[in-house]
């Protein structure tokens, strides 16, 4: 399993994230309202956070402690997200095939079907 996949898995409850970031539940919900983080929701509607979400919350906290306003923080994250999505779109066909082959191999090793494999099955 790749490092990025592990970091994006929603594993941490609100209480754990509050302890890790020293933010209140209200602060975390506020940042969610401003779409700075998007935690996964369980069937019971509980928020589950990934390590990437915790990193974002800590980054927001640092910016606020430096005196930066929320509007400026949102602009920074919007630029960062736009750059990331542009980078993902710039994958060549050969790179995309390589990534998909690796995901299929990992799924076979774990004896699970890949999410992408289900998406691609309609084309075969």
From TrEMBL:
Q: Which PROSITE patterns match?
A: HTH_MERR_2 (PS50937)
Work out whether the entry's keyword set contains Repressor: yes
Residue ranges occupied by any HTH merR-type domain in the UniProt entry:
11-79
The record's keywords, sorted A to Z, are: DNA-binding, Repressor, Transcription, Transcription regulation
Keyword tRNA processing in record = no
Pfam families cross-referenced by the UniProt entry:
MerR_1
Q: Which PANTHER family match?
A: HTH-TYPE TRANSCRIPTIONAL REGULATOR TNRA, REDOX-CYCLING DRUG-SENSING TRANSCRIPTIONAL ACTIVATOR SOXR
> What is the protein named?
HTH-type transcriptional regulator GlnR
Cite the source lineage.
Answer: Bacteria, Bacillati, Bacillota, Bacilli, Bacillales
């Amino acid at each position: 399993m790749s490092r990025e996949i592990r970091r994006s898995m929603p594993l941490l409850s609100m209480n754990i994230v509050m302890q890790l970031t020293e933010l209140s539940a209200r602060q975390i919900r506020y940042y969610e309202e401003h779409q700075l983080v998007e935690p996964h929701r369980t069937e019971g509607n509980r928020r589950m956070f990934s390590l990437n979400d915790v990193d974002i919350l800590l980054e927001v906290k640092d910016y606020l402690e430096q005196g930066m306003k929320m509007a400026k923080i949102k602009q920074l994250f919007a630029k960062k997200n736009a750059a990331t999505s542009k980078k993902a779109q710039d994958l060549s066909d050969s790179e995309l095939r390589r990534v998909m082959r690796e995901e299929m191999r990992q799924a076979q090793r774990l004896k699970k079907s890949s999410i992408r494999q289900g998406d691609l099955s309609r084309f075969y």
